[in-house]
Amino acid sequence: MDKRVYSNGKRRTWLWFACLLAFLSVFAPEGRLVRAGEANAVPAAGQAVSTRDILEMVAGNKGKVVLLNFFASWCPPCRAEIPILRDLREKYSPDDLVIVGISLDESHDAYARFVNAMAITYPTYRARNDVMMFFAVSSIPEAFYYARDGKLSERVVGLLPKPLIEKRLVNLMEKN
Fold it and tell me: Using DSSP, how many helices (H) and how many strands (E) does the chain show?
């Protein structure tokens, strides 16, 4: 499995992504202005989400570290990673850490069975067609680490051991 780590600033794509995130954090769907502190409508867990929905979730959790985790029910490394993320979700306050799972499963039934079997304790959603292309998901599991300011800090392709995942999260939580 490819375990390349992409640091912030290595790709022009991330600059474009940051600009789009900033734009979407100001304008909600239908061109409605979103005021600071206004709650965005978050899709119910298990629903299919678009790129816009995901970016709004990240923007709506400014002040917290956000970990977006792309997975699928048929992925053995994903099965190994989910208990790690479940443990970290339980260990750290939801005021400091938000973990969001994004499933690439095409079948809602396969997704629902997997989420129940793995006893996932953080919100998970199914990705719509635009999501995989926008985030350029090349392999799973794939994780996107967002700092408290809502900016992408790091992208990690492949399964990492728990101490490395936790170290990345703790480093981001300790930064103001």
Answer: 6, 7
